[in-house]
């Protein structure tokens, strides 16, 4: 990753956002977190909106890199790995300040087209990865053939986002939810799940 | 519902919140939405934090009344009715302005103990109703006896909150998610679900 002035300004934006939140984020705060002057930031970016557009673009790249790092030889392993990236602390790339700021940014979406368009991209990327891994599992015969990958992905996309919102709002852990979703997968996605449950009863 | 000055001030708070959001909410904005003066509001409430505490308490009462209005003769019907209240437009008590403000309020929780305590109550009320209806279904034999009510409730609490966050952030509909969760229930909660799936295959 090169550390030219633009990248360095975006890193300073991250630090300023964690510290001050979105509402109080100004070019002045960003300059204070950076080696650059407010004038130099203005040279690269037209204003807060323009800079934040570039910032969300960088964040999107990092987010997709992170979820694409979920690996495994089988769809079942990739599904577990993806949920671990999304829900466990080991998978988290960011602290509480950043998660809080991100929820604040979401609440800005109705008033800000740029933010909304980026959030639609983030949402679509998450949905896409979840749908792909479930579809892979159905195709390989690992998952129940009656599972609808789009429906599972729709539901899990909401669940993951709710887990992140709850983590900020009530400081709730997502670890237990991770266990619950893995349990859900083992019971209801795996091709032999209903069979093994029948045996248990 | 009586319309004494306190109740009238809290109604004005709702209108001001929908219009201005939480960050820009001041006693002046609330007075402007009300028949009361800023001085009178100060007579009843020490400041924005105190007033907002009372506002969230009223909101909690209305929220629990709304989710407790989910009815049905069987646990399966009550489960469907509860999801309809939580996820469909018919069940919604509030418009987009309010939903947006509520997400903004959630992002304030890490900085504001009063808000966080109220959000913990909201979350617990939702979890409790979901857990109760699933436990009822297991007890009555309608739901699969291997279903863990607390785990299902934990997962659905996150899913419902994620659906609301997505609705604000990307203007996503929750209707499809409602269908998906009803479908999930029919496949995986109902006692005869695995049996009927076996027949389909």
Automatic annotation (TrEMBL), chains A, B:
Instruction: Name the InterPro entries for this protein.
Output: BetI_C (IPR039538), Homeodomain-like_sf (IPR009057), HTH-type_TetR-like_transc_reg (IPR050109), HTH_TetR (IPR001647), Tet_transcr_reg_TetR-rel_C_sf (IPR036271)
The membrane-spanning stretches of this chain are none
GO terms assigned for molecular function? DNA-binding transcription factor activity; transcription cis-regulatory region binding
* Pfam families, alphabetized: TetR_C_6, TetR_N
Key words of the record: DNA-binding, Repressor, Transcription, Transcription regulation
Residues in the DNA-binding region annotation: 26-45
Residue ranges occupied by any HTH tetR-type domain in the UniProt entry:
3-63
Name of protein:
Transcriptional regulator
What is the species listed in this Swiss-Prot or TrEMBL entry?
Candidatus Halobonum tyrrellensis G22
């Amino acid at each position: 990753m090169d550390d030219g002035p633009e990248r360095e300004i975006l890193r300073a934006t991250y630090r300023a956002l964690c510290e001050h939140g979105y509402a109080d984020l100004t070019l002045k705060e960003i300059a204070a977190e950076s080696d650059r002057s407010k004038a130099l930031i203005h040279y690269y970016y037209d204003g807060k909106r323009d800079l934040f557009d570039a910032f969300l673009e960088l964040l999107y790249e990092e987010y997709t890199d992170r979820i694409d790092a979920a690996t495994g030889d089988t769809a079942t392993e990739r599904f577990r790995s993806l949920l671990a990236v999304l829900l466990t602390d080991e998978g988290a790339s960011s602290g509480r300040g950043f998660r809080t700021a991100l929820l604040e940014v979401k609440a800005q979406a109705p008033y800000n087209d740029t933010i909304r368009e980026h959030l639609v991209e983030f949402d679509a990327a998450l949905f896409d990865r979840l749908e792909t891994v479930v579809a892979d599992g159905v195709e390989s015969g690992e998952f129940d053939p009656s599972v609808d990958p789009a429906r599972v992905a729709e539901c899990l996309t909401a669940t993951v986002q709710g887990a992140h919102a709850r983590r900020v709002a009530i400081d709730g852990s997502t670890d237990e939810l991770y266990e619950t979703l893995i349990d859900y997968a083992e019971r209801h996605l795996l091709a032999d799940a209903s069979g093994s449950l029948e045996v248990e009863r």
